[in-house]
Design brief:
With 403 residues, the chain is of the alpha+beta class. The protein folds into 3 domains: 135 residues, no CATH class; 136 residues, no CATH class; 100 residues, SCP2 sterol-binding domain (Nonspecific Lipid-transfer Protein, Chain A, 2-Layer Sandwich). 41% of the residues lie in helices and 17% in strands. The protein contains 17 helices and 13 strands. Strands 11-10-9-12-13 form a 5-stranded mixed β-sheet. Strands 1-2-6-3 form a 4-stranded antiparallel β-sheet, sandwiched between helices. A two-stranded antiparallel ribbon has the order 4-5. Strand 4 and strand 5 form a beta hairpin. The protein starts with a strand and ends with a helix.
Length: 403
């Protein structure tokens, strides 16, 4: 366990400051905590063994943060600490549920750098760490500085092991594809499971939708805490002074012992239909079973709709496209925005810019109901709740890029 200090006014955490002060307005400094996990547990092919390590690590880091808060309180210093993991502020789901971005704060305090796998890599412990943050209403006599190098060695083993291709070799990250599979027993996966229950006609129909192992897996997650389906990006990472030796001494042996068992595991992979994740599994892991599911990501406002687009974007579906979409929302919420799809890239602006290839004018409530699967496009067009100026084919292309 290690800790480091940073100031609330540093430029690197400027975009986090409002959320932090929203939790504790008197925050003047931040204490970052890093707890080292047992990497052998995390690397075990059994996800049950891996999950046990996560659960115990979260309990430990929360207990340590509470003990530090107690000692500071004895010194007359007030502080607030947010959970190292769950519980999160799920009233904000699916937007910003984590009001303290532990990885960003820890990086600013010199406890690591973000790796290719989007995890904080500690210079000694690698990415086998759990983080927490204390918000303190006092100044310290000295503060830590960010690392001047990145411990990530860009080996791309995280990309090679990820069953849904969420970590791409070129550095791109598919947030929603990762969440749909790895967090199947939590968050949006739980919402989808509930909907499968209520939409089933009878027990037999439910068992056709959800297998017995999936049902008891959900029970275990609800009863005992964290249950991941993968987390292979962490398991295979060789970075960090205490970790990298085995990899450098025998790369071939490392692949055979650590990476191959996870790649070769016969398991169920959860994907949203029509995503790049589904294509990735078919191409790279044909021996793994694909199960199409929902992920519970439904924007609650049209602003959430614009904010969510980078998270759900399937860039391979936009290959070869060069299309500008103008959106004009009316009714309960009024706002405008521009979405540009240009050969596997996405640009979103909350204003009308450029010359549109297609313009969508929509009643905001109807649009959100359509995204949630509660309304269909054709009736909305007939009743003029949604109006399109441009080729309907471009609407189909848009839907393919954001399934």
């Amino acid at each position: 366990m290690t800790r480091a200090l940073s100031k609330i006014d540093r430029a690197a955490i400027a975009d986090q400051r409002a959320d932090i002060l929203g939790l504790f307005p008197d925050t003047r400094a931040l204490v970052s905590i890093v707890y080292r996990m047992n990497r052998a547990n995390v690397r075990c092919p059994s996800r049950a063994v891996s999950d046990l390590e996560y659960r115990q690590a979260f309990e430990t880091v929360n207990a340590v943060a509470a003990e530090i808060a107690k000692e500071l309180r004895n010194l007359g210093v007030t502080c607030v600490h947010h959970s190292g993991g769950f519980p999160m502020d799920l009233s904000q789901f699916p937007s910003n549920m984590w009001p303290v971005a532990h990885k960003i704060v820890a990086a600013e305090a010199g406890l690591g750098k973000m790796g290719h796998n989007r995890l904080l890599i500690h210079p000694r412990f690698g990415n086998f760490v759990i983080l927490d943050t204390l918000m303190v209403d006092a100044e310290f006599s000295a503060y830590d500085q960010p690392l001047d190098y990145n411990p990530c060695i860009e080996c791309k083993l995280c990309a090679a092991a990820c069953p849904v291709g969420a970590v791409a070799a070129d550095g791109y990250f598919y947030f929603t594809n990762c969440m749909t599979h790895n967090y199947r027993d939590r968050l949006g996966g739980f919402s989808d499971w509930v909907e499968r229950i209520v939409s089933s006609r009878n027990p037999s129909d439910y068992r056709q939708r959800v297998s017995d192992p999936e049902t008891v897996s959900m029970w275990q997650s609800l009863s005992y805490g964290i249950c991941n389906k993968s987390s292979y990006c962490m398991a295979v990472c060789p970075a960090g002074d205490d970790v990298i030796g085995d990899y450098l001494r025998d790369k071939k042996g490392y692949l055979a012992k650590i990476v191959k068992p996870l790649q070769q595991a016969e398991e169920k992979i959860y994907v949203k239909a029509g995503t790049d994740a589904e294509d990735h599994v078919r191409k790279r892991f044909a021996h793994k079973e694909i199960k199409r599911v929902g992920n519970g990501l439904r924007p609650g406002s049209v602003q959430d709709f614009f904010n969510s687009l980078p998270l759900v974007f399937q860039r391979n579906k936009a290959a070869g496209l060069d299309v500008t979409y103008h959106f004009d929302f009316t009714g309960r919420e009024t706002c405008q925005g521009t979405v540009v799809l240009q050969d596997r890239t996405l640009t979103v602006a909350t204003e009308l810019t450029g010359t549109p290839d297609i313009t969508i004018t929509a009643d905001s409530k109807t649009w959100l109901r359509m995204l949630a699967g509660e309304a269909r496009l054709l009736p909305a067009l007939l009743f003029r709740k949604i109006k399109i100026k441009g080729s309907p084919v471009l609407m189909k292309k848009f839907a393919e890029c954001f399934p």
